[in-house]
Structure formats: structure tokens, C-alpha cells
Amino acid sequence: MDIKIPDNWLRDFLKTKATSSEIAKYLSLSGPSVEKVEESVYFIEVTTNRVDIASVVGIAREAAAILPQFGVKARLQPVKLPVLKFLEKVDYLEAEVNQALCQRFSAVLIKNVQIRQSPDWMKDRLTAVGVRPINNVVDISNYVMHELGQPVHTFDYDKIRGAKMILRESKKGERLTTLDGKTHTLPGGDIVIEDGEGRLIDLAGIMGGENSAVDESTKNVLLFVQTYNPVNIRQTSMSLAQRTEAAVLFEKGIDPELVTDGIGRGIELFVKLAGGKPESQILDIYPAPYRARKVEINTDFLTARLGAQLPKDKITQILRSLGFETYWQGKTLEVLVPSHRAGDISIPEDIVEEVARLYGYHNLPSELMQGVLPEPLADAPFGFEEKIKSVLKGFGGVEVYTLSLVSREEAPTGLKLKNPLGKESEYLRTSLSASLVAAARQNAGEKEPFHLFEMANVYLPRRSKAKGGIPDLPNEKMMLGGIFANSSYREAKGAVEGLTNELNVKSEMFSEDAAHYLPNRHIYLKVKGRILGEFGELSYGYLYYQFDVEALRQAHREIGSFKPLPKYPAQIEDLTFSFPSRTKIGEVIAFVLSKEKLVSRMELTDIYKDAYTFRLWYQHPSKTLTDSEVEKIREDIIKSVKEKFGAYMKQLA
Amino acid sequence: MREEIISIKNEAMAQIMDADSSAELEELRISYLGRSGKLTSLIKRLKEIPSDERKEVGVLINDSKSAIESLLAEQKNRIGEVTRKWFDPTIPGIAPKRGHLHLITKAIKEISRTFEQIGFVRVRYPEVEWDFFAFEGLNMPKGDMSPHPKYGQIVLTPHTSSGQIREMKRVKTPPIRMINIAKCYRRQIDASHVPMFHQFEGLVIDKGISIAHLKGTLDYFARNFFGPQRKTRLRPFHFQFTEPSFEVDITCGICLGKGCKVCKRGWLELGGAGMVHPTVLTNGGIDPKVYSGFAFGWGVERTYMMKSGLSIPDIRLLYSSDLKFLRQF
């Protein structure tokens, strides 16, 4: 939570010559983070475990401990309180309290209150912390809360029928109108107060009831200061979306001892600013007062955690400055935790933090750890993944990162989120294709060819067999997807083949129709019958490929295999054939290569209308082929290609 | 005399090779082969040589003369050609097709390299996890307990910290030096938040691991990732799964900690860190009485932005597929 602390208010309790920028700097280094100081107001971030410093006095106490560690004199000026008489029963109010909901219940009647404007100094301070001044009664509550961190409520005493209060848990469906005019239907389990006529008059810890609120004609005020069960407060505040300042404090668990200060300071201000006459007896139902918690810590443990040895008296001095009591027994230190730190200090590690931050993290040494190094992960996939990406980059690919959260249409079988941000991000994707199509479409204005690719997990739902079909964690499968736009089938396929070649993956292609692809324009890449990936032309007009990265990794070889260099040169020539329509050129090449053992290589080099030019390498492993031997092979090729495919020779290049 | 001939020849050849204009070549021709040229004057001295050697020396002189002549001709041709043919060296080159790796890929690569150099092991853990690993095991309040009896509900990991207990369970007996990089998900979207982002999580567990070791590791990272003069500092903070917990700052790259217009106070916020909470160690099956450790988990995108000094106004741009953006890196 972020709080604002005016400098002049802070100095009511913090006696120091330190400048505000010094205070800000040192607090940030050893305590709460001061984000900025603006117009003499500190903007401070208070972490959830430190509700004890979410106030002017809390910050003053923290600063009084921290500043001297930096050589700056500082002293805490405690809250001055009138002498008060706390009793479990008073004659002006009858109270029944559920202890589980309210650890400490206190109230005092203040009579003859005069409602008027607050003095300027109070209005100014409230304005500085972001609270709008209303009148003296409301302002006193807010002022005490900001000063002490203890929320305070005021009732119009005369509106509490029967001068009776029953603090209890709400029943589901009960209705209550808070003083902001909102009517709530309660979820149940909320802390409420009922008066002598059974009316709900307070949504405790969050906001008072409209029917018991102080107004212009109020004469007698009941000053009301409690400690509530933080769990109930949080649940109510969240489910009703009533995030009042009081609720935000109460839900973090407030020190019950603070009630005394809250009552005392409230009385003092009511007398001073509203001419009120407080009853001398204060109702205080507090059956289980705080008893200091004991935490033990050993100096060896402290030294090991800090990486530095601190003298005993330094440790003692630090902890005492923070309000802890300390007792040494040899190397063991017994620490008694003050009530305001009870919510956050319970184990030796907590003491380590207190000592270390006050000693100053900047004063601790900085050194790398020694010792044995852990074994590297066997078979880690990261290097392989990087390699794929750099190969694709080399082919002109542009890498994208797209969101894994997609719409239902994009992942009809995917896992559905319970609380998505919107319909567009309601499901976890099971394929990269929809995201990549969207990515390509985002660049629809681009007229040149482009190639986008992404490597990311897809999340495939699965149910565990062992646990009776309850959902199991999804199969997180690393996928590679890529999309080509403004490109030809051959260009895109060439990149896919280039990738498998670069990875030394010996895959075979099988053409087979698949959903989302144009008919006859889809192939699977397989190794030993296992599908590694696929490629084809999408019905959206893009060329798309995807690979199962792990399958690819299993099939890849880091280094290509070695073949002895040919001893005798190849004769190379181009042959051009004309084929009947619907001839599969891939099959022609496969046919020639399997039939002619002396053709070591055959590539398609050009297509012009129906004329396909191939480059052939004639090569014998143990001799140089003569022209007449080459001619024999050539004639055999021409003849057999004609017989098999009905092709005829166009020309001899 | 033989040596003299060879040395004159070599000298002539060298000078001809160095010549870069026709005029110079002509001068050289005159100085060696002209009427009183160096080689010509040697021919005049032939008669001084004993007659039995004269023929041999004569052949040598003639060979030298023709070698010089042919080199002169060759050189003259070469110079002539170059000066004759006009060429435009400013013509733009034909660009190879340039691909681009995404900034996040580059960031992950650099971050993992930096930690791998001091023995960290890169791992990857589920991005869709049981509540236990993402929350409860990290000492945070657990969510609704269904459907898994032991691990609770299935959640999108909001942080890479969910890899901590996974790593402890994998390694079983420390030492652990983990760097876990993965996608994380949070229900938030604006100029500085995306619902999906990346984090890197460091976890070190061994006997006697201290705050000093955390400082040493962070300083090492600052020097090697951000630059040799950069330093880090710790400030108190609070996380459920570490005790003590810290906020880590790094000195501003411009003023190196003195304070300037860009950074205000000399330091920039890097992210959170802390000493692993004993309950978390216990949940991971590691005895907190024997071992201790530290952990940190920061956003990849944010950390890389800070390193590169790229001022990308809207982090959502990183997850857009606009080529105009992607091709810049």
C-alpha cells in the first residue's frame, strides 16, 4: 500500500535535524521505500507485512531507529495520552461481542459535541494525505487513523437504539445501507453490529451504517475503536468491493495495543476541537491481551546468513532500537517481539532481516559463492532451439512472439481460463497456426515476400488416468511454426527443406490432405513413420509449416555424416523435358535417381511453360566416364522417362 | 658482371611493378633500355669480358632485356585498361535477405549465458502449474483446493518462482544453481503490462549461502550483463517466499549512481530477491537446518529494456507482429 506522510506531521513525533531528503534516503535503504518527496510530503510504499508503519507514528518510530545507524541523531517523541480508565462494563453501552471476530472492542461516549469545521492545521494535513475535510467529527476519525494507523469510527450515540450493541457474524442475504448510501446484500460471514432493536448499524471495519451515522444535528458521539479479525474484513471488503482505508488496514492485522492510543488520541481531539465531554469510564473488552512472543537466534546462524560477523552489542543495540527486548545466553539471543511487530516476526530469519537491514545491506560484503558446481542438465534442449532460430534467421525469417491466450475459435479444444481478460484471450492455444495467420495479416500492407516464425509452448489438455479422469496439467509442447506471405510454394518449401538439411534430419515427405490446408497442398515430414512436422498452403492463402521441436531434436544430428570424396570427376549436363499436365516432378527425380546408379545427383533448375530443365551429374565411383558411356545413360533416361511419364526431350543443353 | 645484370634486372622489374602511370613506365624504359640506359651500357662493356664467357653473359643480358620489355608492355596494358574503363563504386550492393531474431530471444540468450558462466544450470518448468508450486508451496495462501487432492487447482504461473520447488525436487541434494526462464501470465494489460511476459528466476541453494553471496551474484550480473562499472544495492522489501526479502537496484548507466536527470537518484529498480524462506526449502524436501539459499526473479523484457536503453513506450509492441517494429532489431 502507498501512504503519504507530511513532513511537519512526522516531526511531531520524530525529533531530528535530518532533512527530508536524508530521511527519505535512509528510510529507503533500511526500511520502507520512499518513492518521492513532493511539497514536503513523503510518498511511501508500505509492504503488506508492515501495517505497523502505515501511519505517521509508525514511520516516525522506524525512522528513529534507522537514522542513528547512518550517524544522524533522531529520537521518537511518543504519543501523549490522558490518563484513562478502561473497564469491561460501562453503564452507557451494553455490548455482546463475538471474540473470534473482534479481538479488542472499545468505545467511549462523548457528550455535547459541537459539529463544526476543523481548524486549518488539521484540514491542511488531511488534504496533504489525500483526505477531504468534512467536519470536525469525521476529520478527527480520519486524522487519528492516519496518525496512528488505527481506524476509528464514530456513531451518533442517540441512534443506537437501546444503547446496545451485538457484534456478530452476518447471515447470508442480510441487508445493510452504509453511510455512502449504498445498500449491500451481505454474502454472510461479515462482521456486523446490531443495535437493541435488531437493526444492523455498522458494517464493522469497513464502513458505518447510514442509520447510525453522525450528522449536523448530532449531539452525543460514541467513539469506537476495535481490532477485527483480518480474514473476515478481507473477505467482506473484496466481495462487496468496498475498499475503504479502514478495511485495507484491518485486513492486514492491526496491533490490538494500538486501541489504547486510538481512544486516547480521539478523546483528546474531541475535547479540544469539538468541546465534547467524554465519559471517564471507557468500555474495553480485551480478554486476551498481547503477551510478547519469544524468538531465539544463534549468533552462528546470524553470521552464516549475513556472510559477516557482527559484535553482540551491535546486534543488541539494533534490536532494542526497534523495540525488541533482548536477552543473551552465550551465543543464543532470546528476542521478545513487541506487539506492533507480532504479525511479522516469528522465526529466526525474521530477526536476521531486522538486524541486517538496520546494520545496512550496503555494509555487508559482496562475494560469489564457492563450492561444487551442480551437474549440467542432461540433454538440455536450449542450444538446439537457439540453433533452429538462427537457421531461420539466416533464411530471412523474422521471429515473432505472440500471446498464448487466444479466442475459443482459435483453440476449440484448449484449456479455458476461469477469469480471462476478455473473449480474445479466453483459451490456451493448442497450435501456433492461428496466431501466425493473425501475425501475417497484421502485415497485410506488405507487398514483398516475408517469412514470420515463432517457437513457443502449446498447451494440450490431458486427463490423468490414475486419478479417475480429473484434469492433469496440460502437455506443454514446444512447437515451431512459420508462415510465408507473398511467396511461392517452392520458396517456402525450400526453406523448410533447408531447415531439415541444416539440422541433418533425414525426413521423408508424404502428401496427404489436412484440415485448414488447400486440397493436395499439404505434406507431412516423417522420420521412421513418426511425424516431425508439416507444411502446406493454408486456405487463407499463406504457406505454413510447423514442427514438434522435441521430435525434431530427437531426429537431428549435430554433425553431418562423412562420405569419401569422389575420386573421379562428374560430367554435368542439363536436360529439358516436356511433361503431360499433372506430372509430379518429385516422382520423376526419384525415379531417375533410383533407376540410374551412375547419376549421382539431379536437380530441377528451371521451369518454362511445360518445359522442365534438370541438371544431372553423371559419375562413376571408380573411373572417369567417357562421352559414349554418358551418352548411353542419357539415352536410357530419355527413353525410360518417356515410357514412364510420357515426357519428351525438348533440347540438349 | 653476372650479379650486376641480375640485380639491374630485379631492380627494373620491381620499379615497373610499382609504376602506376604510362609516363612513369616510359621513364623507366629510358633509364634501363634507352641509349644510355643501365642495361644498354652493360652491353657496351661486353668486350671487357673474356671471350669464353662473353656468349653466356650476352644471352643473360638479352634474356633480361626481353623480360623487362615484356613486363613493361604488360604493365602498360594494365594501367591503360584501368584508367579507360569507367566504374561506379557507389552503386548500392545487393542485400542478402536479412532475418531477425526477436528482442526477447536475444535477451534470454544473453541472460542465460551470463549465469551459465558461473555454473548456473538453465532449466524450464511448467508454465501451467499446480497451485502448490505456484503459490502454496511458496508460502502463499492457497487457492481453491479442487481438483487435485494434493496440489490444488491448475493455474497459469504468475512468476518463474514456481520452478523453485520443482528444481529442489529434481536435484534433491544441493548444490543448486538454477536459472529458470519461462513465460508467465498475469491478468493485467496496459502500456507497461502484458498478460503474457517472460521472467528469469535464479535459485542458489547450498550449505552456508548468505546475503553476501546474493550480493556477489547480483554484482557479477550487473557487471557482466549491464557493464563493468555498474553496481547493485539491496533495499528491504517483502515477499512471502523469501526472508529476508529485497528490492534490487542498479546504478544508472548514465551517471553511475551520482544522480542525473534520467534516473533522479542514481539508482534504477531491477526487481525482487531474497533468502529462500525455510518453509519453502522444507516444501521442496530440503532441510533448512543444513542448507540455505537465495532467489531472484525478474522480468526478461524489463531487464533487457534497461540494458539496451531502448525507450519502447509501450511494452505491448514487443508482442505485436508488425514488421516495421521487428525489422529494427
Description:
The complex is a heterodimer of chains A (653) and B (329). Chain A is an alpha+beta fold and 653 residues long. In chain A, 28% of the residues lie in helices and 30% in strands. Chain A has 17 helices and 34 strands. In chain A, strand 20 (325-329) and strand 21 form a beta hairpin. In chain A, helix 5 packs antiparallel against helix 8 and helix 10 (312-321) packs across helix 11 (348-359). The longest helix of chain A is centred in the last third of the chain and has 19 residues, at 627-645. The radius of gyration of chain A is 40 Å and the shape is elongated. Chain A starts with a strand and ends with a strand. The mean pLDDT of chain A is 94. Chain B has 329 residues and is α+β, with helices and mostly antiparallel strands. Chain B has two domains: 2-84, no CATH class; 103-326, BirA Bifunctional Protein, domain 2. In chain B, the strands form two sheets. Chain B has a seven-stranded mixed β-sheet, with helices on both faces. Chain B has a two-stranded antiparallel ribbon with strand order 2-3. Chain B is elongated. The model of chain B has no long low-confidence stretch (mean pLDDT 89). At the A-B interface, helix 2, helix 9, helix 11, helix 12 and strand 22 of A face helix 5, strand 1, strand 2, strand 4 and strand 5 of B.
The largest beta-sheet of chain A arranges its strands as: 22-25-26-30-29-28-27
CATH class of the largest domain in chain A: Alpha Beta
Classify the fold: give the CATH topology of the largest domain in chain A. Phenylalanyl-tRNA Synthetase, Chain B, domain 3
Q: SSE order of chain B in H/E notation?
A: HHHHHEEHEHEEHEEEHEHH
Tally of domains of chain A: 5
**Terminal-residue CA separation of chain A:** 81 Å
Q: Mind summarizing the main beta sheet of chain A?
A: 7 strands, mixed
How does the helix and strand content of chain B classify structurally?
alpha+beta
Provide the CATH superfamily of the largest domain in chain A.
Answer: Phenylalanyl-trna Synthetase, Chain B, domain 3
CATH architecture of the largest domain in chain A: 3-Layer(bba) Sandwich
Spatial extent as radius of gyration of chain B:
38 Å
Uncertain residue ranges of chain A = none
